[in-house]
TrEMBL record:
Record InterPro entries: AraC_XylS_family_regulators, Homeodomain-like_sf, HTH_AraC
One MF term in the entry's GO annotations: DNA-binding transcription factor activity
Keywords, ordered alphabetically: DNA-binding, Transcription, Transcription regulation
Keyword match Cell cycle: no
Domain HTH araC/xylS-type: residue ranges: 133-228
Protein name as it appears in the record: AraC family transcriptional regulator
Domain of life of the native organism: Bacteria
SMART domains noted in UniProt: HTH_ARAC
Length: 235
């Protein structure tokens, strides 16, 4: 659904049983439609995740995820992202008009659910957005490219304090925490062979800095994560 592209960064569909679910820290808010093994259907909102979590697998015949671009959740959901941090709530708790939405989604044709969900979300978007939302998008790009908070504020022509305030409300995290998560997510998306080389390429002071930051956000060391030695929680 092309109309969702400015708002939704990634759409994934899972239709199988998985042995383990790895959820890295994530600055984005994600809408999830799932059907469990009992055939029960629900639509959830998963807010920004400040640290990684690891769960034993479960059977989900359908699990559709729409990862909303950081900073774009508020216009779609009508709620500030900082109210959703580290929370998973039914979409109907955030948007009363979403009651009954899951019943309109066809489990036999989950691909069509994107259009149904997308139409529901886009109906809520105000015709005119405050100028700060454009600024938030620019800040996300700057911080993702490893600019400091001070450099980002200067480039955008605002004060550090103002940037921190509107960024936390729109994204759910402080600019600094967002940048830390973006950097660690970049590391785990690549097959690292040398952590010292990775540290230099990702802008860490040294390998020790990388390991400390990785462990704080992923809850394990890089070596443990690479070999699957993670603290799994039973769902």
């Amino acid at each position: 659904m092309r109309a969702l592209e400015p708002w939704v960064e990634e759409i994934t569909l899972q239709r199988s049983d998985v042995s383990m679910i790895v959820l890295p820290p994530d600055p984005a808010t994600t809408l999830v439609w799932r059907i469990n093994a009992a055939g029960e259907s629900d639509v959830l909102i998963a807010g920004p995740r400040t640290k990684a979590s690891y769960h034993s697998g479960k059977e989900l015949p359908v699990c559709l995820r729409l990862r909303i671009r950081p900073g774009q959740a508020m216009p779609l959901l009508g709620i500030a992202a900082d109210e959703l941090v580290d929370r998973i709530v039914p979409l109907s708790d955030v948007c009363t008009t979403a009651a009954g939405l899951s019943e309109r989604l066809d489990r036999d044709h989950p691909e069509q659910a994107v259009a149904v969900i997308g139409s529901h979300l886009l109906e809520r978007v105000p015709r005119r957005l405050p100028e700060r939302f454009e600024l938030i998008g620019e800040a996300v790009e700057e911080l993702s490219s490893r600019r400091s908070v001070g450099e980002t504020a200067t480039r955008l022509g605002v004060s550090d304090r103002y940037l921190r305030r509107i960024f936390r409300q729109a994204v759910g995290l402080s600019p600094k925490h967002f940048a830390r998560i973006a950097r660690v997510r970049g590391l785990i998306s690549e097959n690292q062979r040398s952590w010292s080389t990775a540290a230099a390429g990702a802008g860490y002071a040294d390998q020790s800095h990388l390991i400390a930051d990785f462990r704080a956000l992923m809850r394990v060391t890089p070596a443990a994560f690479a070999t699957g030695r993670v603290p799994v929680t039973n769902c």
